[in-house]
Amino acid sequence: MSRKNKVVLVIMIMVGILIFGFSLRNVNLNQVARDIVHLNVGWMFAALICIILYLGFESVATKVLVESNGDKLTWKDAIRIPLIEQLFNGLTPFSSGGQPAQLVALMQSGIEGGRASSVLLMKFVVFQSMVVINFIFSLLIGFQYLEEKIRFLSWFVLFGFMIHLAVIIGLLMIMYWHNFTKRLISLIFIPIKKFTSEERYNGWRVSIDQKVDSFYHESVRMKTQWRLLVKVSVITFFQLLFYYLIPYFILLALGRTDVNIVMVTCLHVLIFMVISLFPIPGGAGGAEYGFSVIFSQFVGNSSKLVLAMMLWRLLTYYFGMFAGMFALVIKPNKINRVKKIKTSE
């Protein structure tokens, strides 16, 4: 981890402490302490298991993709990859640092750079697709609730959805209309040329063209491996499902046994969209606010609401970051990188 990343990590931890402190400003701390004492440990353990399974299923997806072409990845290395991703997602705006960090981690494990890029590309496409599919389903169930209770937040949710949908549409355009997409990008870059130097403009154009061409060539190969994509899609579905279930178990731990599991899960999907809008690493501030507003109707008092938000944030954000710090210091395996192929006698 670079010095800059270490500084950002310290800053984000301090920001989190400040946000928690700000959230507690009008809350009876004695009541919060009583709520903590009376937490249902069993349900909290279930919430903890959910975030572990979320990371675990991503490890499975990574291992399946890496080994689909004959490479070998130990379970230790497979588990290390998503943990490192969580750390750098949490340190960069819009989670932009997760992909490069995974690429480096896979190459440290002995996976060739082009092959590692292909694995991450397939995983990214599947993940984004499942996020959009889950959102559409959740929108049908939970959007009316947002419209009735907190109409202003519904626009943030829809805007977040549009961003994720635009990513998927862009990827599909590259996959199926490669030449048209490159011409469209050239048109988009025309006005940009007026606001930057020629050297920087040419550098951006070359970089974008290389990325588009690389994605297109990889997508051609992806389309021939539809069975693998279906398998990884199923794994990713369960990965996201366990993540989306976390608030439900937190509410149960706080004694709210009357909540609807489908509604709570769908609302958490919508929060995921809100978080993606905030450029601050981890969506700090926006994530806590979105959770508090959306789930205020499910919690009996302000102290439990703040506690629920803090527990949720600790599990879904800080747990992955701290686990990623430990993963960074674990040395990857570089031996027996190629799987043995069985031959029939």
From TrEMBL:
Record localization: Cell membrane
Query: What main location does UniProt list?
Result: membrane
Q: Which GO terms describe its cellular component?
A: plasma membrane
Q: Name one GO biological process term.
A: lipid metabolic process
On whether Lyase is a keyword of this UniProt record, the answer is no
InterPro entries attached here?
L-PG_synthase/AglD (IPR022791)
The enzyme's E.C. designation: 2.3.2.3
Look up and give the membrane topology term. Answer: Multi-pass membrane protein
Q: What does this protein do?
A: Catalyzes the transfer of a lysyl group from L-lysyl-tRNA(Lys) to membrane-bound phosphatidylglycerol (PG), which produces lysylphosphatidylglycerol (LPG), a major component of the bacterial membrane with a positive net charge. LPG synthesis contributes to bacterial virulence as it is involved in the resistance mechanism against cationic antimicrobial peptides (CAMP) produces by the host's immune system (defensins, cathelicidins) and by the competing microorganisms.
Q: What is this protein called?
A: Phosphatidylglycerol lysyltransferase
Name the gene that codes for it: mprF
